[in-house]
């Protein structure tokens, strides 16, 4: 029996936000596979890639996550077919970011024939992440040291942090200046019973002279020497008597009080050394890339310094060599300035090297490097690589169908249509003939103006607020508000709680932070005695709320997922795994954090392998206790990327007065019926196209998001591989 392709992804809670680079990672692997040196995406897994019949990307131009949830009921096909969803960073022009800046050029058919196109516009340089981070002007070294917030964000040891108890300070507490001395530091680690422990330390000064190159005896038994990377063997460590405390003492003596340490991902070295140093330059962050990616030290050393390090012929890495390379890279950056570094266009160089390696022609690769080096010396502004080049290297000709005016001379066909109906008709004919297709639909300019977007945003906020809000009562005049807060807080995290005095008897207005909490309160506390009164909680009267709640429960994204409230906020994920270990078929759990303070909330989501196991878990959990707290649970409504978006929307709710948007809302109301019809047609178009796709076709539907001077709205992605049942396989 022929194998079917399958897609698996853990898009749960905080892991559901995907960058463009991660999306391109999936597209490249799906289109090219391992045989063309593409690698499995880091955030999902394509099973049996070689059996994929094709890749189809449907782009809904100028639409965002906001549109999907505003017209959730109209997108009937999308929400019932695609189980995997993710939040996408908004883009000013998604297709341009997919093609690269070189979309108007015809890609070369082989890697060694590829050349670079000079771009004269200075605005292109402004888009470089290095320029966006540091500006164009050359600055002193203190401008490139990490701030305290950057150190915290990137896992550096911080003085006073609970995680750094017992760590030693280097004692370098003198004010840094642009003439402070630089020192390169690198460590090699082995895996021990304790974790990663230092087994070799190297320190070089600003002239590259080695001040320290010492083997270190770990405190606990070595589990894995990681010789391939560390270069450390059991035989090397047998005679060693130097301990970590000895190294800490020597470093404190060697480093002057205004020393600036330089390294590549230096946080790992300092964590292993159990030392705190206030002033660092991290070359993995200095040479900035988009979407949080980092260049490897080996690549930077070859591209910028012309040095081969971490060679495969050598046994592991040389920490002295790595420390010196990181130091020289930082010195190059400081001396040349960010503009010069940005002009090197390291992204293009990296892509070209990978494509040249695909060709297997080492001589061509070396020749290409020489041509690149000459251009680097001349410092032209270089165009960014085109994603489509990767496909053309293998002879694939992508198909583009859509309204957007974009030179598609490098595509199999150039089809700029005037309506979604025409686009659909062409897609039904041509998509089966192409292995990689991009289909773009649009609502049209009359439905995507900034004033309409603001009105949509306000309406969605208003609806979410109603769904998150309940009214409890009636209470006696002298009731205790604290008692009400305590009881309703057991259902989930509360955003706000106020007393309504306009009614004959007092009611309490309670707004939650998660949808499940509000619904749980209505279901469980009806008729309960709270603060001396028998209460009846009700949700705010809002058309379609009940229907919407029911549809969210049935959403394929929430299959096998339940919501649990009443947890202690001090509980960690590892504690919850232990508590719920007896539940059958538990796949994973998610413990939400408050987006403002980063603290855990008093609720969690549990995902099971199937719906029946989730139902059984509800029966077990409801009424049971964990750490002395009674738990309450129900089916999930917003377990995936939606919970984060709701949190962001509810946090910003009320910051803009309703009266300022009155005219916009009125204008929106006049055209909303037409807009709903258009959205419903759009959903039907996608359904027709999806039905025509061959089985084992990877289909990705993208709401690219909106990024303009009027504000940003996150994008949304839905994806799946079509199976013989017409659903996305997972």
From TrEMBL:
Record CDD domains: REX1_like
Swiss-Prot/TrEMBL keywords: Coiled coil, Exonuclease, Hydrolase, Nuclease, RNA-binding
Which Pfam families did the record assign?
A: RNase_T, RRM_1
Q: Which InterPro entries match?
A: Nucleotide-bd_a/b_plait_sf (IPR012677), RBD_domain_sf (IPR035979), REX1-like_exo (IPR034922), REXO1/3/4-like (IPR047021), Ribonucl_H (IPR013520), RNaseH-like_sf (IPR012337), RNaseH_sf (IPR036397), RRM_dom (IPR000504)
Determine if Coiled coil is one of this entry's keywords.
yes
Q: Which domain of life is it from?
A: Eukaryota
Q: What molecular function terms (GO) are annotated for this protein? A: exonuclease activity; RNA binding
Provide the coiled-coil residue spans: 665-692
Chain ranges of the RRM domain: 560-638
Write down the SUPFAM superfamilies for this protein, in alphabetical order.
Ribonuclease H-like, RNA-binding domain, RBD
Keyword RNA-binding included in the entry's annotation: yes
Q: Which GO terms describe its cellular component?
A: nucleus
Q: What is this protein called?
A: Putative RNA exonuclease NEF-sp
Q: What is the species listed in this Swiss-Prot or TrEMBL entry? A: Chlamydotis macqueenii
């Amino acid at each position: 029996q022929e194998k079917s392709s399958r897609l698996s992804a853990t898009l749960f809670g905080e892991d559901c936000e995907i960058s463009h680079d991660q999306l391109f990672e999936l597209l490249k692997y799906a289109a090219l596979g391992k045989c063309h040196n593409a690698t499995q995406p880091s955030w999902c897994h394509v099973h049996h890639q070689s059996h994929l019949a094709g890749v189809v990307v449907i782009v809904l131009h100028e639409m965002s996550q906001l549109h999907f949830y505003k017209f959730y009921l109209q997108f009937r096909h999308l929400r019932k077919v695609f189980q995997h969803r993710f939040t996408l960073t908004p883009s000013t022009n998604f297709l341009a970011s997919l093609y690269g800046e070189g979309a108007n050029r015809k890609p070369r058919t082989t890697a060694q024939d590829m050349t670079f196109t000079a771009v004269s516009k200075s605005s292109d340089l402004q888009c470089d992440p290095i320029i966006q981070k540091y500006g164009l002007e050359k600055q002193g070294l203190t401008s490139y040291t990490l701030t305290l917030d950057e150190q915290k964000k990137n896992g550096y040891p911080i003085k006073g942090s609970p995680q750094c108890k017992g760590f030693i300070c280097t004692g370098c507490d003198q004010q840094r200046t642009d003439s402070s001395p630089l020192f390169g530091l690198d460590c090699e680690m082995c895996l021990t019973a304790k974790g990663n422990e230092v087994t070799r330390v190297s320190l070089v000064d600003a002239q590259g002279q080695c001040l320290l190159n010492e083997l270190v005896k770990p405190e606990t038994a070595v589990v894995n020497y990681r010789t391939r990377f560390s270069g450390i063997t059991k035989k090397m460590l047998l005679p060693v008597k130097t301990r970590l405390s000895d190294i800490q003492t020597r470093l404190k003596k060697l480093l002057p009080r205004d020393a600036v340490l330089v390294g590549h991902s230096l946080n790992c070295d300092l964590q292993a050394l159990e030392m705190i140093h206030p002033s660092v330059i991290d070359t993995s962050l200095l040479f900035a890339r988009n979407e949080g990616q980092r260049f490897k030290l080996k690549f930077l050393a070859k591209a910028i310094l012309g040095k081969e390090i971490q060679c495969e012929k050598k046994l592991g890495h040389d920490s002295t060599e790595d420390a010196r390379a990181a130091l020289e890279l930082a010195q190059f950056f400081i001396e040349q300035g960010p503009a010069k570094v940005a002009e090197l266009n390291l992204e293009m160089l990296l892509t070209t090297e990978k494509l040249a390696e695909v060709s297997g022609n080492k001589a061509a690769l070396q020749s290409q490097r020489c041509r690149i080096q000459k251009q680097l010396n001349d410092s032209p502004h270089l165009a960014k690589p085109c994603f489509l080049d990767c496909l053309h290297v293998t002879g694939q000709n992508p198909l583009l169908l859509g309204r957007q005016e974009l030179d598609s001379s490098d595509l199999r066909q150039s089809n700029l249509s005037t309506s979604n109906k025409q686009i659909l008709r062409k897609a039904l004919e041509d998509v089966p003939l192409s292995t990689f297709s991009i289909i773009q639909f649009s609502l049209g300019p009359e439905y995507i103006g900034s004033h309409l977007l603001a009105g949509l945003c306000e309406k969605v906020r208003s609806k979410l607020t109603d769904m998150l809000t309940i009214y409890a009562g009636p209470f006696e005049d002298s009731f205790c508000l604290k008692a009400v807060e305590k009881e309703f807080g057991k259902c989930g995290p509360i955003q706000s709680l106020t007393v309504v005095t306009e009614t004959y008897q007092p009611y309490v207005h309670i707004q939650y932070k998660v949808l499940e909490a509000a619904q749980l309160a209505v279901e469980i506390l009806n008729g309960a005695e709270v603060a001396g009164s028998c209460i009846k909680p009700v949700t705010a009267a809002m058309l379609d709320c009940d229907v919407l709640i029911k549809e969210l429960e049935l959403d394929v994204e929430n299959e096998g997922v339940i919501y649990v409230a009443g947890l202690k906020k001090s509980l960690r994920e590892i504690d919850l795994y232990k508590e719920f270990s007896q539940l059958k078929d538990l796949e994973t759990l998610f413990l939400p954090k408050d987006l403002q303070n980063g603290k855990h909330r008093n609720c969690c989501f549990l995902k099971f392998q199937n719906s029946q196991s989730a139902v059984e878990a509800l029966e077990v959990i409801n009424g049971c206790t964990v750490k002395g707290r009674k738990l309450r649970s129900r089916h999930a409504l917003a377990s995936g990327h939606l919970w984060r978006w709701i949190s962001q929307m509810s946090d910003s709710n009320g910051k803009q007065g309703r009266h300022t948007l009155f005219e916009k809302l009125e204008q929106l109301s006049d055209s909303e019926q037409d807009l709903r019809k258009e959205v419903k047609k759009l959903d039907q178009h996608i359904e027709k196209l999806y039905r025509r796709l061959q089985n084992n076709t990877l289909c990705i539907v993208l709401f690219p998001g909106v990024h303009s001077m009027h504000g940003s709205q996150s994008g949304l992605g839905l994806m799946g591989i079509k199976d013989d049942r017409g659903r996305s396989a997972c």
